[in-house]
Design a protein that fits this description.
The complex is a heterodimer of chains A (about 475) and B (about 525). By secondary structure, chain A is of the alpha+beta class. Chain A contains 17 helices and twelve strands. In chain A, helix 1 crosses helix 4, helix 10 packs across helix 16 and helix 11 runs antiparallel to helix 12. The two termini of chain A are about 40 Å apart. Chain B folds into two domains: about 240 residues, Metalloenzyme, LuxS/M16 peptidase-like (Cytochrome Bc1 Complex, Chain A, domain 1, 2-Layer Sandwich), CATH 3.30.830.10; about 200 residues, Metalloenzyme, LuxS/M16 peptidase-like (Cytochrome Bc1 Complex, Chain A, domain 1). In chain B, the strands form two sheets. Chain B has a six-stranded mixed β-sheet, sandwiched between helices. Chain B has a six-stranded mixed β-sheet with strand order 9-10-8-11-7-12, with helices on both faces. In chain B, a hairpin with a 5-residue loop joins strand 1 and strand 2. In chain B, helix 9 packs across helix 16, helix 11 packs across helix 16 and helix 12 runs antiparallel to helix 15. The longest helix of chain B has 17 residues. Chain B is globular, with a radius of gyration of 24 Å. Classes of the chains: A alpha+beta (about 475), B alpha+beta (about 525). At the A-B interface, helix 2, helix 3, helix 4, helix 11 and helix 13 of A face helix 2, strand 5, helix 4, helix 10 and strand 9 of B.
């Protein structure tokens, strides 16, 4: 799923953001029964709930002199209404604009001057804020998150300033780069329900229309302790940390729960197609998506396996067929994005210029059909399990990855222990499950195809 | 993890500064609307531990194999995985023959496309089955080719021997080379649609001139000229163990591993090859402006700077501190001014590249077209300010604290520890280099900061590159110096401007050299 963040380090534009959920640290965790003697893969944590409803997850780990703090709010662009797209993310930027005891811009200054790093991100289903700091600055992270949860300061000048910043983020990540608008075209075509039909970055018109008084109401409604999860991972003593968490957070007032969002989608009855031109593109891109169940539904695990069979690693089927054997594509990726509601199984192909796109699309469907009728190989199942374990271990060196993952699973599915059980669930997927979910979901009537074509040059440019 | 980690090492770390002397009132460019009063503010009420957490970086186990290969091992048993990084000096893109830019890079990327005993597909399947990763590359401008592998510790022996087969016995099959060439041809055309590529290409050309570090990409001609024989020769001559460092981090036992490496790597024979590169780029001596016309662009991508220092320069640490204050991240002056106060951009920063030869200090970012003039004004205002005014003691102390306190975070990743060790080796620093580094940072004075800013950030000789809609920004850029205009294909062109009359033909010329 495409995320928008408060700050992008370096000058690079973000890469395509729908890579398989495995890759972003939110996907997987390993299991106790796969553990070598003497090694623990599990992320141990304790849970608490404060009197004001704030859910607290503490995971003590002294292996490095650092800790990460993450506050995950149960709000995202799915909570927006028509005419106000982009608001949840714009609001995320306002969380760095000062509160009672922290000046505008001082958040980054305090964190960075003490050796830490910080950021915030918004997607359709949640908004999170995180810091990694040296262990001796435990109180600083808690103070900063509590102060803005309690007493955010919003004024017109700062709101206008961040509106401009977000509009530049939109230009940089969407409007000024090749294929920047393909993502929005796909979700607008595939989804019927407004919740997921619009992008998190929002439209320029809606960003222009955003009003500062809406921000105050948004804060009041969604940024309450009972609508958030605080996760801490790293080098602290759990009792000490809990005492400090209570000191800083427990007196923040709870609020009535925000309105529930309906993300349900009517069943799709037929294929949808859209073709668009892109002035910056040099070669066609094809996006093929299928509507699939929410991120934690039983079938979602088998769909993750399907994605890996198709595009996980250079031995994967679509890479071998389209890139190596037929040389019709430059690259291909496939897999389900992870949403709390109806998700998309997303296949994206960067085609070679001048290839027959109908033939290319047909080759993809042939590979999908193969998965439906033939069991996948044992070696394919094995390789996925091995790859998932390695990626998870690589990710879990980082306290930030663990803190963010715990917070996300708590907000998404009310189940932070998924950080440890995800890999069990993946390992329980059978070859028959893989065939079944491919047949159930990856079918024509459930499909949306968006083709992005290089814009035809005016005659004068070609001479 | 990227290959350039060890050059601008600290410059790459997000950094901080507390600025906040009142800014002098300025007149804003005519294109930029007067901003609201969105001011950065410090309340100083947060509970902070005033100690900087002192951390000692773990020292890797070091060995030299009989074939001359240097081995560095960082044991870390937290996670059951191992990461391997091999850096081969003399095999980097900097040494590409002038007619074959990309040879080092393509040789590295082709390693896994076939060995004496395995096809491309077998390598892909085996490494995926083992849950391993294998990759290699050489960045343009780099002395080294870097080969990487990672995987689980439980099957380390299997994937490590696959990695060695790929490293030592590649055959660069002609049919696989042809496939890669086909893909590269498309990529060469696609990269010209990305403003970041266009700005890098022109900026490197502007600051490096004829130095080989000016090159940032293969060409259609060089791709066509690549042959299996050329790749084999490059591999045979330049992948030499006596010029390489093998770094291993993760769940291994050094004492067991070193004798095994001695055995497994015995077939990699040393040679007499020793490559050095003496050509040093000189800073451009006069201001020059380049516009890359990208019609339909809704932003202007800006880069400005000039050649500064190499990694062993005594000015390195003061430059780290100076850059930190000026543009090293979301608490630095450029970010606070151009984004937090003016709202011109999503991101703006500066960095510098310091390798075995001097590289550039550079600032830049993406600005909406309409505020191009205002953004350029502010870039130069900030450069003049750090040259003309001494940074306050508070701002300096904050920067030094940020840099030294950041060491704690690097202990989360064993590969970071390994990178520190590799930098120390590659540049021949004393073995206590990183232990004494915090003290070097703390010794930097505000005079040092001003001195390096004046020495390396000279507005009169800076090279300024802008990628954007030429009709709208040409007249703005012309005010900054002699202007050359190119199209996105890299060819000189003449364009007219919406605002002023045609300025006459653009002239293709190299910046003057000192």
């Amino acid at each position: 799923m495409k995320k928008a963040g408060v700050y992008l380090s370096g000058l690079l534009a973000p890469l395509l953001a729908f890579a398989a959920a495995f890759l972003d640290g939110t996907g997987t965790a390993s299991t106790q029964n796969a553990v070598q003697p003497g090694k623990s893969f599990d992320v141990a944590f304790k849970e608490f709930t404060l009197k004001n409803g704030l859910r607290v997850i503490l995971s003590e780990d002294h292996s490095a002199p650092t800790y990460s703090i993450c506050v995950t709010y149960n709000v995202g662009s799915r909570d927006e209404r028509p005419g106000r797209t982009g608001f949840a993310h714009l609001f995320e930027h306002m969380m760095f604009q000062g509160s009672d005891n922290v000046g505008k811009g001082e958040h980054f200054i305090l964190v960075l001057n003490n050796g830490g790093s910080a950021n915030g991100t918004t997607n359709a289903d949640r908004t999170n804020y995180f810091q990694t700091l040296p262990a001796n600055q435990l109180e600083l992270g808690l103070f900063l998150e509590a102060d803005r949860m309690r007493s955010l300061k919003i004024n017109q000048a700062n709101f206008d300033n961040q509106r401009q910043t977000v509009q530049e983020e939109r230009r940089q990540s969407y409007d000024n780069r090749p294929y920047g608008k393909s993502y929005e075209a796909v979700i607008e075509t595939a989804y019927d329900n407004f919740a997921y039909k619009h992008s998190t970055i929002g439209s320029m018109e809606d960003l222009n229309a955003a009003m500062v008084r809406d921000a105050a109401e948004f804060f009041h409604t969604y940024y309450a302790p009972n609508n958030a999860v605080l996760s801490l991972v790293g080098d602290f003593n759990t009792d000490v940390a809990l005492r400090l968490v209570k000191k800083y957070f427990e007196s923040i007032s709870s609020q009535p729960p925000p309105p529930a969002v309906d993300t349900s989608e009517p069943e799709q009855k037929g294929e949808r197609r859209k073709s668009m031109e892109d002035a910056f593109a040099q070669a066609p891109r094809i996006d093929i998506v299928y509507k699939v169940p929410p991120g934690n539904a039983p079938d979602s695990y088998a769909l993750k396996i399907v994605g890996e069979v198709l595009s996980g690693g250079l031995s994967a089927r679509l890479h071998q067929k389209l890139v190596k054997e037929r040389e019709m594509a430059l690259s291909v990726s496939a897999g389900p994005d992870e949403r709390r509601g109806p998700s998309l199984f997303w296949i994206s192909i960067m085609a070679r210029p001048n290839v027959n796109l109908t033939e290319l699309e047909g080759l993809v469907y042939k590979e999908l059909d193969r998965i439906k009728v033939e069991p996948i190989g044992d070696w394919e199942l094995d390789k996925i399990r091995m790859q998932v374990r390695r990626r998870q271990s690589q990710g879990f060196y980082s306290t930030r990855t663990r803190a963010n993952t715990l917070g996300q699973y708590a907000v998404y599915y009310d189940d932070p222990s998924l950080i440890n059980s995800m890999q069990v669930k993946l390992s329980q997927v059978t070859k028959a499950d893989v065939q079944r979910v491919a047949a159930t979901y990856l079918k024509e009537t459930n499909r949306t195809v968006v083709t992005t074509l290089p814009k035809a040059k005016p005659a004068s440019d070609q001479s | 993890m990227n290959g350039s980690r060890f050059s601008p090492f600290f410059a790459a770390i997000a950094s901080a500064a507390a600025l906040l002397l009142p800014l002098p009132h300025r007149i804003y460019g005519q294109d930029s609307p007067a901003p609201g009063m969105s001011k950065v503010e410090r309340k100083n009420r947060a509970p902070i531990s005033h100690d900087v957490l002192r951390v000692k970086l773990p020292k890797p186990v070091e060995a030299k194999l009989k074939n001359g290969l240097t081995v560095l091992i960082v044991e870390d048993h937290r996670e059951p995985i191992v990461s391997v990084q091999l850096q081969i000096t003399g095999a980097g893109a900097l040494f590409d023959p002038p007619n074959l830019p990309g040879l080092a890079k393509i040789t590295a990327e082709m390693l896994r496309e076939g060995t004496k005993s395995r096809t491309s597909r077998q390598i892909a399947e085996e490494s995926d089955k083992l849950g391993a990763t294998l990759s290699a590359g050489s960045e343009f401008g780099s002395f080294v080719t870097t080969f990487r592998a990672s995987g689980l510790s439980q099957n380390f022996d299997s994937w490590f021997s696959l990695a060695l087969d790929v490293l030592l016995n590649p055959t660069f099959p002609a049919d696989e080379l042809e496939k890669i060439k086909q893909r590269l041809r498309v990529q060469l055309s696609q990269q010209r649609t990305a403003p970041n590529f266009l700005v890098d290409e022109r900026f490197n050309r502007a600051v490096f001139g004829d130095h080989p570090a000016a090159i940032v990409s293969p060409t259609a001609e060089s791709v066509a000229a690549m042959t299996t024989e050329a790749l084999l020769r490059w591999h045979h001559e330049r992948y030499a163990p006596q010029n390489a460092i093998l770094g291993i981090a993760g769940d291994v036992r050094a004492a067991d591993l070193i004798p095994k490496l001695e055995k497994q790597l015995a077939v990699w024979e040393s040679s007499n090859r020793k490559d050095s590169f003496s050509a040093r780029p000189l800073p451009a001596s006069a201001r020059k402006v380049y516009l890359i016309d990208r019609p339909n662009s809704v932003q202007t991508t800006i880069a400005l700077g000039n050649i500064a220092i190499d990694r062993r320069s005594p000015d390195y640490v003061p430059m780290v501190v100076m850059n930190h204050i000026l543009g090293g991240g979301p608490a630095a002056r450029l970010f606070l001014n151009l984004r937090e106060e003016k709202g011109y951009t999503y991101g703006v920063s500066s960095n510098f590249t310091a390798r075995r030869y001097p590289g550039p200090w550079r600032a830049g970012g993406n600005m909406r077209t309409e505020v191009t003039a205002g953004a350029l004004t502010e870039f130069f205002n900030e450069i003049r300010r750090i040259r003309d005014e001494k940074v306050s003691e508070a701002e300096l102390a904050d920067a030094k604290r940020a840099i030294t306190a950041r060491f704690a975070l690097s202990l989360e990743q064993p590969t970071e520890t390994l990178n520190f060790a590799i930098v120390q080796k590659v540049y021949g620093f004393p073995t206590d280099y990183w232990d004494s580094y915090p003290a070097q940072v703390m010794a930097v004075t505000s005079d040092d900061v001003q001195r390096v800013a004046r020495k390396y950030l000279d507005p009169d000789t800076m090279q300024l590159v802008a990628v954007g809609d030429g009709r709208k920004i040409k007249s703005i850029l012309e005010k900054y110096g002699p202007l050359d205009v190119y199209d996105s294909g890299g060819q000189p062109v003449r364009i007219s401007s919406d605002k002023t009359t045609n300025q006459g033909p653009a002239i293709l010329q190299q910046p003057n050299r000192k």
